[in-house]
Amino acid sequence: SVFDHKEFDQHENVAFINDEVTGLRAIIAVHNTALGPSLGGCRMYPYADSAAALTDVLRLAKGMTYKAALANLPQGGGKSVIIADPRADKTPELMRKMGSFVDSLQGQYIVAEDSGIAVQDIKYMAENTAYAGGLSAHFNYLGESADGNPSPATAYGVYVGMAAAVAFRLGKSLADVTVAIQGLGQVGYRLAEHLHAAGAKLIVADTYQPNVDRAITELGAKAVAIADIHKVAAEVFSPCAMGASINSDTIHEIQAVVIAGAANNQLASDDFGEVLLARDILYAPDYVINAAGIIDLYHQSIKSTPEQLKAHIESIGDTLTDIFKRSQAENQATNMIANLLAEAKFKK
Ligand code: NAD
Fold first, then answer.
1. Cα gap 297→239, rounded to integer Å
2. Domain total for the chain?
3. What is the pLDDT of residues 299-342, one digit of tens each?
4. Which atom of ligand 1 is nearest the CA belonging to 291?
5. Is 79 a catalytic residue?
6. How far apart are CA 107 and CA 282, in angstroms?
7. What are phi and psi of 157, to 5 degrees?
8. ipTM, 2 decimals?
9. Which domain holds residue 105?
């Protein structure tokens, strides 16, 4: 069922396609378009069954509404999933058909990259629809070419957000703190570079050893075991790998007083926000601090200048500071305050 599904939250549209010619099986979920057309990535994943795909797309689309609202974008939330293996099932025809599927919603949904989908896939989709983004992310980071990768923008947004959190909680700059980074991938490594340039000390962990070695050599980072990164002595813990790293096993071991990272769904459940509040650990809500990727997407679509984009990304710091102040004044968890602020925007 869709309407009785536990993740159904008055989504405006949920569309399905089953194309025998290309083998495309996909779902597009549009959560809310009160602030503008829905924007969100397309995820290609070999879901066990269509129920698992539906659960994922409904939940992810809703999350995009909240993210876009607090990123001050005139955009709503949507997401799409292709039920297939990105390593085995990708063909240009399948992607073109996905483009036609996106186009059939006539602009209610704008597609971009998510896991399993590369810039080239979006290019195939864009042959059949104008509603495709993420072709040329233009946040220019240390001379990197603008190839559609949102990670440089995301890393800069997390860096700015972390600076705001450290200033609020400790009255210090990043030069005076140690940051423990969990995951040195597309975002985490670039974040580490920003922090190193700002004078922060780094403790890092990654399951992929070459990333760790590089951080030790290039950034003077100290490496620790995967199982220890959340509990090291550091002012800031920065989850930049997978979701749910703040869970019942880890939450009481965290020594940091600020949590600020790129990963989506950092809290294993919303209730952990209350636990962090009680422990006086300042949590930067994940979808607020990691929103620069979609901010970049939006700026591509309006063809703004790099300065306008940078200023918009930097506003993440102000949004977080507002959340922190309200959390303190009302003694409510920061993740709950973020939800309330987002809902006030798109439920108007
Ligand atoms: P990535 O796959 O490039 O990097 C993840 C890194 O984490 C990899 O280096 C991997 O080896 C490492 N890793 C995996 N499991 C680990 C573990 N248990 N402990 C430590 N390291 C581990 O991904 P990314 O694009 O850098 O994204 C990181 C997180 O940020 C994800 O949760 C993603 O959803 C979120 N995010 C990314 C963007 C973006 O623009 N890329 C935007 C918003 C949110």
1. 23
2. 2
3. 888 888 888 999 999 999 999 999 999 999 999 999 999 999 99
4. 43
5. yes
6. 38
7. -65, -40
8. 0.99
9. 13-66+75-126
